[in-house]
Amino acid sequence: MFTKRLATTLLTPAARQAARRRFSITPTRLQTLPVKVTGTGTGTLQKVSVPGKPYTFTADTYPVLGGADSAPSPVVYSLASLSACNQVTGSVVASNHGIKLGKWDTDAEGERFDKFVSEVERRCPITQLFKLSGIRYESEWVNERL
After folding, report:
1. What are the backbone dihedrals phi and psi of residue 14, each rounded to the nearest 5 degrees, phi first?
2. CB 33 within 8 A of CB 8
3. Of 6, 57, 71, 133, which has the most beta carbons under 10 Å away?
4. From which residue to which does any coiled coil extend (predicted)?
């Protein structure tokens, strides 16, 4: 059995610089967001919790990697985190730029849409983690009419 604690303080200099960039045009939101998690587990199965919050989730991995596939894998959680973070960040960016969002459709078109996408990816901390990790990162945003 093992226990580990993770916090955002373990960032590379480049990641710290990216994290300090303005997330919102509202000055009161220009701050770090303290996030801590605690994980306990045996083998490939881990239960993760957020201290002080009612959030818990379980992670496992695929049988080919020695897991039982009894819960989503860390890779699945990472991609879900990327998607959710883009949506949260996109909502903030849309509000800041006066862009109307529908059910994740937008009224922005052409150059305005491209700027929206660029700004979401610049501000989204999970997108930045992927980009700064050195992996090949590609995203495709499709603008559909409201």
Report:
1. -65, -40
2. yes
3. 71
4. none
31 is written with which tokens? Answer: 């701050």
Opening angle at CA 104, ends 102 and 105, nearest 5: 60
Q: What does the block give as tokens for 1?
A: 């059995």
- Residue 53 phi, psi dihedral angles, 5° rounding: -125, 160
The structure tokens listed for 100 are: 């109307």
Per-residue pLDDT of the chain (146 residues; tens, 9 = 90+): 333 343 333 445 565 555 555 555 555 555 567 788 999 999 999 999 999 999 999 999 999 999 999 999 999 999 999 989 998 999 889 888 888 887 766 677 888 888 989 999 999 989 999 999 988 888 888 877 66
Cβ–Cβ under 8 Å, residues 71 and 2:
no
